[in-house]
User: What shape does this take?
Amino acid sequence: MTEHTHGEHYWDEHYATIDPSWGTRPNAVVVDVVGSLPPGRAVDLGCGHGGDALWLASLGWHVTAVDAAAVALGRVAQAAADAGLTDRVTVEQHDLRVSMPSGPFDLVTATYLHGPAEFPRAEVLHRASQLVAPGGLFVVIEHASSAPWFWDQHRVFPTPAESLASFDLGEGWSVERLDAPRRTASGPDGQTAEVSDNIIAVRRTR
Assistant: This one.
């Protein structure tokens, strides 16, 4: 795979400094939005330590867990093995600026898929949307404010509608959720802070 600034080595170093237990629980919004859906084929883009991917697999989904960091993916694979979920969890290393997993998927999630300034997030999420099968769901959860541990305290965040528009999805989608609730977040070193998230859930209608 072509090497890029802030690619695999950057994220491997990042995850090597983080407690392996951080991010191993599913995101509460993913649980709320996805929990009642019948299992199918899912992909978790930027899976980190696999909280969402492993939870989905426990419900019967066949999940492709994707991250740029081999360190994170190794931890996900080990956790899947420990939970007896190896047959439902596949790990794939991708720098999403360069490559994507092969779809289609009934569910595509991208939870806090943020990166340094040069990460072409809107373009990546546009391509991610093309992985969604007709009738499938595309769920994006993103920061809408800066926590004290966030690397860029001066970033201006879009509204949920502005963010959705930037994905350039075109026709054939229906909005199921589009809001920016506040929550108490926990940082990698145990800190807490009140933050906002943009929550975007859209279904492919054709």
